[in-house]
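Technical note accompanying the year-one report. For the benefit of new consortium partners, we illustrate the data format agreed upon in the data management plan: each record pairs a sequence with a structure-token string. No post-processing was applied to the example shown here.
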Amino acid sequence: METTDNMVLYQRENCPYCQIVRKKLSQLNLPVKLVPVEARGSDRKTLFELSGQQAVPVLTDDGVAITESERILAYLDNKYGRDVSGPMPANDLGLDAMAIGSFEAVKAKTVDALMAQGFGIQTEIDVQATLRKKLGVEVPKQVILGACNPGIAHRLLEAEPGIGLLLPCNVTIRETGDNRYSVAAVNPVKLLALVGREDLIPVAKEAKTKLRAALDAVNN
């Protein structure tokens, strides 16, 4: 396999497209210099001179610039991935906890813990019942709760009206066996990275802290 000591990734920490490129580089064990690119600044001019665009990610390899995450992934696999690359590692999509007890007891405990952190439950999807009815298949018990903290939601909607597409915050309760249940909540920081608004990250971190506190109250 070829190796390189001259690879540079121009990226932003919270950009989801940059995150997947970093994951691929890590999977292939490729050394790379990470150059942070702010939303505005002189580094944007440098980026344009290198690639003809200002959007990240941009990868340079021995002076050759590759733009767009899909093209970068294909380039890395084609050049460096022979006999190494495989399926991408699973994404760390959320915040996790484990609870023991009956399904109804775990669900009630989860709802109470969320309410203690200022979240109300706006929606509830019974995954097991839905798949049984629509597809005739049997899966372990699982519900998806749509949790909303009104104060946080209001601040986000004021700053970005279209962000309602990413609300409410999903919380899942999933049976894993022996009266054990995985309780997980979406990571708001990773979710809001899709928006590309770094000014919203502090609000996302606040939501993450509250969800983490709720899961900690459930965990046993």
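Partners are asked to follow this layout when depositing records. The mean pLDDT is 89.
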